[in-house]
């Protein structure tokens, strides 16, 4: 993903299908991103992590693309790599991952993907924080 309209299209598809969208925020110069990206893609594409929980979508967002505009700032992306899930087109900031050690830990990432898949597009409102808790959003059935 190299511009906001492209991300908006993925978010719309994700919301329509009630499937969480996992985004990996990268940069062309980021060596850590090149280590993490294949691990996550392999877990989702090859190993099918998250499928039995309802599935997930996955895209990589290139934060240093010339057309990216304020896309990273919009979702509080302050470092690369960053993993951020979206549910019903809303960023789940309470589950955002910025720790490289956690992203390289296959067991940790597997559990994170499964948890996000269980959300099944029912999160929204930034996750299960104050307003999600008040209105019953972000709870898994």
Explain what the structure shows.
This protein has a 4-stranded mixed beta sheet with strand order 2-1-3-4, sandwiched between helices. The protein contains 6 helices and 4 strands. A hairpin with a 2-residue loop joins strand 3 (82-87) and strand 4 (90-91). The longest helix is centred in the N-terminal third of the chain and has 16 residues, at 31-46. Helix 2 packs across helix 5 (106-119). The protein has helices at residues 4-16, 31-46, 71-74, 100-104, 106-119, 130-135; strands spanning 21-26, 57-62, 82-87, 90-91. By secondary structure, it is of the alpha+beta class.
* Oligomer designation: single chain
State the separation between the terminal residues, measured CA to CA.
32 Å
Give the number of helices.
6
Radius of gyration of CA atoms, rounded to a whole number: 14 Å
Q: Quick one: how many beta strands?
A: 4
- Major β-sheet annotation: 4 strands, mixed
Give the overall shape.
Answer: globular
Stretches with pLDDT under 50, minimum 5 residues: 124-141
**What portion of residues is helical?**
40-55%
- How large is the share of residues in beta strands? 5-15%
Can you list the strand order of the major beta sheet? 2-1-3-4
How confident is the prediction overall: mean pLDDT? 86
Class inferred from helices and paired strands: alpha+beta
How would you spell out the order of helices and strands? Answer: HEHEHEEHHH
């Amino acid at each position: 993903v190299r511009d906001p309209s492209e991300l908006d299209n993925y978010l719309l598809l994700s919301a329509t299908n009630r499937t969480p969208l996992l985004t990996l925020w990268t940069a062309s110069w980021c060596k850590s991103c090149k280590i993490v990206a294949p691990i996550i893609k392999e877990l989702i594409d090859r190993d099918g992590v998250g499928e039995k929980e309802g599935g997930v979508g996955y895209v990589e967002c290139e934060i240093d693309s010339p057309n990216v505009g304020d896309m990273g700032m919009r979702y509080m992306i302050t470092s690369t790599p960053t993993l951020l899930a979206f549910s019903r087109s809303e960023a789940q900031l309470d589950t955002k991952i910025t720790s490289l050690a956690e992203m390289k830990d296959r067991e940790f990432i597997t559990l994170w993907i499964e948890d996000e898949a269980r959300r099944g597009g029912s999160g929204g409102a930034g996750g299960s924080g104050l307003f999600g808790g008040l209105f019953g959003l972000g709870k898994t059935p």
